[in-house]
Amino acid sequence: MSIRRISSGGEFEAKIGYCRAVIAGGFVHVAGTVGQGDSVTDQCRSALQIIGAALQEAGCSFADAVRVTYMLPDRREFEPCWPILAETFGAAPPAATMIECGLIDPKYRIEIEVTAVLPGDT
């Protein structure tokens, strides 16, 4: 099985030793991704842009997502993100889980992890 790694050049990739996404076994595994901005919705949109770029580089899109995990320090901030997520994943939403937990830096309010299937491998 061939493995391909995608880097986005994020500051934590080199510090921690990971890459933005790994393509293996017909799947694209996108690492937990945080975004920039002051509000949880700003950070949600920003994280989704980073994830979308990784999916595009891998040869797929949000329409190919089969699993998503949302991690938030405060679960009450999840609901404002729902319209953004519904718009992003459209009519073919993936299986999803939301976890309330601490993130790597207190400035981050949401982290999103996605797994997608490569087109033609379904």
UniProtKB/TrEMBL annotation:
<dbReference type="Pfam" id="PF01042">
    <property type="entry name" value="Ribonuc_L-PSP"/>
</dbReference>
<dbReference type="InterPro" id="IPR035959">
    <property type="entry name" value="RutC-like_sf"/>
</dbReference>
<dbReference type="InterPro" id="IPR006175">
    <property type="entry name" value="YjgF/YER057c/UK114"/>
</dbReference>
<protein>
    <submittedName>
        <fullName>RidA family protein</fullName>
    </submittedName>
</protein>
